Amino acid sequence: MAQTLSVSDAVELAVVERSGFIESRHAGAAIVLDPEGTPVLTLGGVDQPILPRSSLKPLQALACVTAGAALEDERLVLATGSHSGTDRHVAIVRDILDAAGVEESALGCPPAWPGDSATRDELIRELGQPDRLRMNCSGKHAAMLLACRASGWDTDGYLDPSHPLQLHIREVVERLTGAKTLATAVDGCGAPVYAMPLSALARAIHRIGTSSERSPFALHRSAGLLVQAVRAHPWAIDGPGRADTIAIESLGVFAKGGAEGVMVMVAPDGTTVALKILDGSGRAATVIALTLLVRIGALAAADVAQTLTRLPLTISGGGQDVGSIRPTV
Amino acid sequence: MAQTLSVSDAVELAVVERSGFIESRHAGAAIVLDPEGTPVLTLGGVDQPILPRSSLKPLQALACVTAGAALEDERLVLATGSHSGTDRHVAIVRDILDAAGVEESALGCPPAWPGDSATRDELIRELGQPDRLRMNCSGKHAAMLLACRASGWDTDGYLDPSHPLQLHIREVVERLTGAKTLATAVDGCGAPVYAMPLSALARAIHRIGTSSERSPFALHRSAGLLVQAVRAHPWAIDGPGRADTIAIESLGVFAKGGAEGVMVMVAPDGTTVALKILDGSGRAATVIALTLLVRIGALAAADVAQTLTRLPLTISGGGQDVGSIRPTV
A Pfam family matched by this chain, by name (chains A, B) (predicted)? Predict the structure, then answer.
């Protein structure tokens, strides 16, 4: 059976401290590429395969664009986002569906409650139900439907790994990672997701994060526009008060978390981090990535320290702060 | 700084599989004692310290009883439970507070939403707010207040580690574990919690789980009554549809999970498991404990297989089951 790194290939990346006692630890693998794309730091088995989950979205969004989906600005960010389902996010997903000329029912992602708790509570008070638009991946799915329309592909069956859209996405993924995909899995939202070495994911994200919108290559131009759009609209890729949004708006990084403890991040100078927490927890992923970027000199320690105060890293005891989740990299 | 086992002391206990790809792993330590209390299986660093978190509650509840708190049946279960905050749970906590002659405001645990989602949603529709009674540890806190009243101790400051109640609890903890506590931390609810080797926690839980209500020793009689009460009222220790409740009602075990991946379980024959998932996740804790009890012959494989269908172990992709959380012990 195909599988991710073993426990013995993982190294400690963060600890959870309560009243001065380290009670839990997160292990995994992490890789840092310098602005030229050369690995400058590796921790754990970075050449072992992982499922990138939503950290694959920038690659999937670019493939939708190269398949003809006309996506710019906030619509492009929603295509690459794991949004928190606020009304503002959902309005943009509707715009993409309108542009595709399809109904909400065409979305292949399952119905879900929004991740944003205020929005969820409002829906509960209004006796609302989970729906497909509120699901965090609905922007990606709307973009996939738009790409199908632009390329003349049937929107039925667009999530099948052998559908022309998914074959095209896989080709773009392999071009950007420079590696053959190692296995195909069904992501939480129903879309195909591909296993790849963590180092290959880092390579692809580095290419995207350092692309210019003035590149002679269409894929690179699109990548440059995507990163520019994410930095211009950080609220859209995640949500108010959430980790990717906070990291992007306060530090100008490109950041995209994925389920099961995956994180990719590109500093303004092009330094790139990719990491996988082996146990699948995301609670330490952002702080580990930011700390690695400080360690390598790509972000200023004081700026990151300021950002960390906005992340949910404190450990509570009786309503008081009694500890923290802290990186050990 | 005092700390739990290291990454290199932890061994794989479970994996998360999606579409045939193992994408995450949980490592930790586990120990199994036979009905006589002799260790018969150890995995990882079982003599390293852990914070037992809510798996300490059976010991704390017994200390409240030996301090004079008159607790029986469902009240005794609430004293040792991490309840899901339904109206039925809260009514019993109120009964304990009434018996102590104190108001809800005397509870030292912080306000919280109930863990039971239907109850939470109903509160949100009624524009309710988090409160102390709904907090999962409110039964333990009510029992502590009742113990203070019974012993003539001030209820103010009952969470201070130097308060007579907490000194008494610590003494009972050390008697049951047979070990000096290694560090004192503030638990999520504000109560003191003590670091101890995982093997010492297992020893204490084995003593409790094999005690008879007809023992010549008062502490053992109380322990026998506690375990009997938990088996008679499994809904009260956790909540409808939740893991400890399901395991107890379907298999007759005594089970008590704790935050950050701790689990203790005693089979009807007295075989005892204690485990700590190093990363703090509880999603695989119950299935690992049950699997160890099957492996050692204390539970029937077919019975456990039936119970596992009721636990949230399936991995979803597009609303379909595409994998599972499965033990590797």
Answer: Asparaginase_II
The nearest CA of chain A is from the CA of B216 a distance in Å of: 37
Count of structural domains within chain A: 1
Q: CB–CB of B304/B33 below 8 Å?
A: no
Tell me the DSSP string of A128-184.
Answer: ---BTTTSTTHHHHHHHHHHHHHHT--STTTTSTTSHHHHHHHHHHHHHHTS---EE
Mutate to test the interface with B, among A11, A16, A24 (most CBs of B within 10 A): A24
Residue A233 forms part of a structural domain:
yes
Give the domain range for residue A307. Answer: 7-327
Enumerate the β-bridge partners of residue B315: B323
Q: What is the CA radius of gyration of chain B?
A: 19
Contact A260 B3 (CB under 8 A): no
B279, B288, B316, best to mutate vs chain A, most A CBs in 10 Å? B279
Q: Is residue A1 part of a domain?
A: no
Do residues B85 and B113 touch, judged by C-beta distance below 8 A?
yes
Assess A135–B contact: CB distance below 8 Å, yes or no: no
CB atoms near residue B172 (< 10 Å): 20
Q: Spell out the per-residue pLDDT of chain A, length 329, in tens.
A: 699 999 999 999 999 999 999 999 999 999 999 999 999 999 999 999 999 999 999 999 999 999 999 999 999 999 999 999 999 999 999 999 999 999 999 999 999 999 999 999 999 999 999 999 999 999 999 999 999 999 999 999 999 999 999 999 999 999 999 999 999 999 999 999 999 999 999 999 999 999 999 999 999 999 999 999 999 999 999 999 999 999 999 999 999 999 999 999 999 999 999 999 999 999 999 999 999 999 999 999 999 999 999 999 999 999 999 999 999 99
Q: How far apart are CA B133 and CA A155, in angstroms?
A: 51
Tell me whether residue B54 is in a domain: yes
Nearest residue to B29 (alpha-carbon basis) of B324, B292, B271: B292
Cα–Cα distance between B63 and B66 in angstroms, integer? 5
Structure-block tokens of residue A3: 């599988």
Q: What is the CATH number of the domain that holds A85?
A: 3.40.710
Q: At what angle do helices A57-66 and A218-232 cross, to 10 degrees?
A: 130
A310 found inside a domain: yes
